[in-house]
Design brief:
Blueprint lengths: L1 H6 L1 H19 L3 H18 L4 H28 L15 E6 L7 E5 L2 E7 L11 E8 L2 E6 L19
Parallel strand pairs: 3-5
Antiparallel strand pairs: 1-2, 1-4, 2-3, 4-5
Helix pairs in contact: 2-3, 3-4
Length: about 170
């Protein structure tokens, strides 16, 4: 058994790497994954230098240490400091839309928000907001957007009619 292990140390290192990799699936901390990378490197060294166990251990430890010190912090930072995922109606809070149907304090108005129509009511509960006004969604109350105006209504600009040519 010991002769086989000495001659096939690369297989032992691969087994250690596989066990650490599988254990990482349970922890999801990326520590065991970095140690598995060290064991994988040691397996590569064992394939080229089968009789030098000390070299396999040193190279494996250096690799694992470098991975733990340099690579793992970058991965953890990337995963834990990404954008917060907003689900449900929370994804519309802070977005802007346009009033389609006049918004009264008693409800009944609607806004277009990213291609969707939402029922809406004013944030201050006393204002009436005219169609064409840009509004910001302050909160969601059930299925109703609570909005605040951020611009004046878009005015209808009349296009000048062509003048009739002068009669002579």
């Amino acid at each position: 058994m010991m002769d086989w292990l000495r001659d096939n140390m690369w297989a032992a290192w691969l087994t250690i790497a596989a066990v650490l990799g599988l254990a990482e699936l349970a922890s999801l901390d990326f520590t065991l994954l970095m140690l598995a990378a060290g064991a994988l490197t040691a397996a590569g060294v064992a394939a080229f230098f089968p009789g030098l166990l000390w070299l396999q251990i040193v190279i494996g430890l250096i690799t694992a240490g470098a991975m733990l010190g340099a690579i793992r912090p970058m991965i953890v930072r990337k995963i834990h400091h990404g954008q917060e995922l907003k689900t449900g109606s929370a994804h519309v809070i802070g977005r802007t839309g346009t009033v389609v149907k006049e918004i009264h304090p008693d409800g009944g108005g609607s806004i277009r928000l990213g291609g969707e129509l939402w029922t809406a009511r004013p944030y201050d509960e006393v204002s009436t907001i005219a169609p064409g006004t840009r509004v910001e969604v302050m909160s969601i109350d059930g299925a109703t957007a609570v909005v605040y105006p951020i611009s004046d209504p878009l005015s209808q600009v009349e296009t000048p009619k062509p003048q009739d040519p002068p009669q002579s």
